[in-house]
Amino acid sequence: MKNIRVILAVLLVGVMGFTACDEDDDPESPMLSTSGDVTVDIEKTVTLEVGASSGTNLTYAWILTDPDGTVADLSDATSATPSFVASIAGTYSADVVVVSSDGGTANETIEITVVNPTYEQEDQMGRPAINTVFNYFGDADTKNAYNQTLPANGSSNAGGFEGILDALQNYIGLDADTYANVLGLDNTTTATVLSTDVLNCNKSASTTYGPSDLDNITLFSNVLNGRGLDNDVVDVTLILAFAGDDLTNLSSLQEGLIADGVAANDKSFSTEFPYLASPH
Fold first, then answer.
1. How close are the terminal C-alpha atoms of the chain, in Å?
2. CA-based nearest residue to 67, from 43, 88, 85
3. Which residues, 6 or more positions from 141, have their beta carbon under 8 angstroms from its beta carbon?
4. Does the bond joining 274 to the residue before it have cis omega, within 30 degrees of 0?
5. Is the dihedral of CA 200, 202, 205, 206 positive or negative?
């Protein structure tokens, strides 16, 4: 199969421009160097390259064969640097024939191995501070296992999150067994919500980490529904963890625990994409 491809390439070069030689001529074959065999990820653009240290007025003819044995398209099969998109996993074979003006020929083959990589999730951090603060149980393997859990299965770690909530609340004098937050959720339910470390999106409601209306707090509607750049997401989490169900009846200790004290951004956010504030 390879010999057939080379023969085809030679014929193509001959059609493009063959210079006849006298019988006494002894054409010198060009000395070639190539970009060499490579391994790339699938869907990458691959640029092939061939150079010659001898010969003049060189012409090039490339033939690219994909892993299925089919001749594939090149951007410019008669240049020294054609390219193609590696759209199939496996090994491509690129054969090039180079002919000099005196009729000398040389050929090379480049193999391109295309791999389809398998990506692994290494972290999940949809809700700021949740993973950092509440994923603090067990050993490193336990924490890493949570980070590699698909977000849809994040609540499978809720027990560990609940244990952290219980311990923190009991430490400051709250009763974790009876605790309920402003959403009316106990620690078991709150841990289930927060341990799924993704941003929920209810497109029928306004985007806000919330709550946008303290008199009508609705989960995944006006609280924990996406997040705006100006939302104080850490304060919302602290309120859920320590404020209880009545924001008008807080102890002095609770008042000191439901805010991180970080001021709002010192520059206004843009109303146009990407919505970030202008740099200093």
1. 62
2. 88
3. none
4. yes
5. positive
Give the gyration radius of the chain's Cα atoms.
33
Q: DSSP states of 135-186 as a string?
A: ---S-HHHHHHHHTS-GGGGGGGHHHHHHHHHHHHHHTT--TTT---TTS--
Token output for 150 = 């698909």
* Residue whose entry in the numeric block shows the structure tokens 């919500």: 193
Q: pLDDT tens per residue, the chain (280 residues)?
A: 555 554 455 444 444 444 444 444 567 788 888 989 999 999 999 999 998 877 678 999 999 999 999 999 999 999 999 999 999 999 999 999 999 888 889 999 999 999 998 877 777 778 877 877 777 766 788 788 888 888 777 677 788 889 999 999 999 999 999 999 999 999 999 998 888 888 888 999 888 888 777 777 888 888 899 988 999 888 998 999 999 999 889 999 999 999 988 888 999 999 999 999 999 8
Domains of the chain: 2-20+27-115 (2.60.40.10), 130-257 (no CATH)
Within its chain, how far is the Cα of 35 from the centroid? 28
Separation CA 189–CA 125 (nearest Å): 19
pTM for this prediction: 0.58
